[in-house]
């Protein structure tokens, strides 16, 4: 039976990449050992990381104005690193909030610096909506403006980018990176925990504008210091070597698939199949306004929560796994990242339709 994994993260990775990694597990580049067992300062490893960065730069069209860092600590590590590196005396870190992760970033930021939170989300008659980017009440001055373009739990995606207002724009792209085209120049820091569209958890990609590396910020652990990491080629300490290798393989695979434009078309098509079905059904519902529905994470609710357990059990028997919604919001959630094939979404819709007919 084919299993389709709808987990929000750690999430499904391209099967082709996993098969290649399996073949190389005990013998990488004919070295007779795996990539996890060699020095991160050895020539083969250094060549791999160089090509990894070059590949990501090609995929996202990242200019020389930016450093690309491969850091530890996942997305949440950056919740702390951003205020620690970007703090300016007397100016707040501004957090645009529209869901659980942007709220979490704000809470963590408040441990280190003064924060100003701006709520852009409305919940009216059970429908979640967000204010358009040009209506956000951003202060003229801030040490940075942080937002989360895709709220993984709430299923809310912000497609426009805020205009810079005398403050660097920082985006938590953990669950949206490489899923659609963006203009990196619109941002000052982009960070993304790897475990959705990139590779194993723990690794975090940080794309940081070089001009920010001169900010003094706050006293901080060296491991979270962008300037130190940039100077050390992301090897201040031993990097997560296997995660880095697998990220390189995923980037190579994405390039071979046609890069980000191809992923964007693929993701749009998948999301349309699922949302169109949910909208056409009286049995299922999604609570997000159409213009800001996530293309990556699709939360949906059954007509009655009393059917949730049965739905999950039968879905699993049909090979459709990890559909349970996040514990904070309930319901179901189908995460359909880059690696989810269209056949997986079709199989999910077929199953949902059969289930609805049996329980209407
Ligand atoms: N930000 C977003 C948008 C996420 O979806 C997640 C995790 O799912 C995180 C941050 C936290 O990432 P991590 O668990 O790698 O710290």
Automatic annotation (TrEMBL):
It comes from Pseudoalteromonas byunsanensis. It catalyses: O-phospho-L-serine + 2-oxoglutarate = 3-phosphooxypyruvate + L-glutamate; 4-(phosphooxy)-L-threonine + 2-oxoglutarate = (R)-3-hydroxy-2-oxo-4-phosphooxybutanoate + L-glutamate. Homodimer. GO terms for cellular component: cytoplasm. It comes from the Bacteria. Keywords: Amino-acid biosynthesis, Aminotransferase, Cytoplasm, Pyridoxal phosphate, Pyridoxine biosynthesis, Serine biosynthesis, Transferase. InterPro entries: Aminotrans_V_dom, Pser_aminoTfrase, PyrdxlP-dep_Trfase, PyrdxlP-dep_Trfase_major, PyrdxlP-dep_Trfase_small. It holds the Pfam family Aminotran_5. Its cofactor is pyridoxal 5'-phosphate. Catalyzes the reversible conversion of 3-phosphohydroxypyruvate to phosphoserine and of 3-hydroxy-2-oxo-4-phosphonooxybutanoate to phosphohydroxythreonine. Its EC number is 2.6.1.52. It is an enzyme of class 2 (transferase). L-glutamate binds at residue 41. The keyword tRNA processing does not apply. Its main location: cytoplasm. This is Phosphoserine aminotransferase. Belongs to the class-V pyridoxal-phosphate-dependent aminotransferase family. SerC subfamily.
């Amino acid at each position: 039976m084919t299993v389709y994994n709808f987990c929000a993260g750690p999430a499904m990775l391209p099967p082709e990449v996993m098969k290649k990694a399996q073949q190389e597990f005990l013998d990488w580049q004919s070295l007779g050992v795996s990539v996890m067992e060699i020095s991160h300062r050895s020539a083969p490893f250094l060549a791999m990381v160089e090509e990894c960065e070059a590949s990501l730069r090609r995929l996202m069209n990242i200019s020389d104005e930016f450093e690309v860092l491969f850091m530890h600590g996942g997305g949440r590590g950056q919740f702390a690193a951003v205020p620690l590196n970007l703090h300016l005396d007397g100016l707040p870190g501004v957090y645009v909030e529209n869901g659980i992760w942007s709220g979490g970033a704000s809470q963590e930021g408040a441990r280190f610096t003064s924060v100003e939170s701006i709520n852009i989300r409305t919940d009216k008659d059970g429908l979640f909506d967000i204010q358009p980017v040009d209506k956000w009440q951003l202060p003229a001055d801030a040490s940075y403006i942080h937002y989360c373009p895709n709220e993984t739990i709430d299923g809310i995606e912000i497609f426009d980018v805020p205009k810079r207002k005398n403050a660097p724009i920082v985006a938590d792209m953990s669950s949206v990176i490489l899923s659609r085209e963006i203009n990196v120049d619109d941002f000052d820091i982009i960070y993304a925990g790897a475990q959705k569209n990139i590779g194993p958890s723990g690794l975090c990609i940080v794309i940081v504008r070089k001009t920010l590396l001169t900010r003094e910020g706050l006293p901080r652990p060296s491991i979270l210091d962008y300037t130190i990491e940039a100077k050390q080629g992301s090897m201040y300490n031993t990097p997560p070597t296997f995660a880095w290798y697998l990220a390189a393989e995923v980037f190579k695979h994405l390039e071979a698939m046609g890069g980000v434009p191809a992923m964007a078309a693929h993701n749009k098509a998948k999301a349309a199949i699922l949302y169109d079905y949910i909208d056409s059904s009286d049995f299922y519902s999604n609570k997000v306004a159409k213009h800001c529905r996530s293309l990556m994470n699709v939360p949906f609710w059954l007509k009655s929560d009393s059917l949730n357990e049965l739905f999950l059990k039968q879905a699993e028997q049909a090979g459709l796994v990890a559909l349970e919604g996040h514990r904070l919001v309930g319901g179901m959630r189908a995460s359909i990242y880059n690696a989810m094939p269209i056949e997986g979404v079709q199989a999910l819709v077929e199953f949902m339709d059969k289930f609805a007919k049996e329980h209407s």
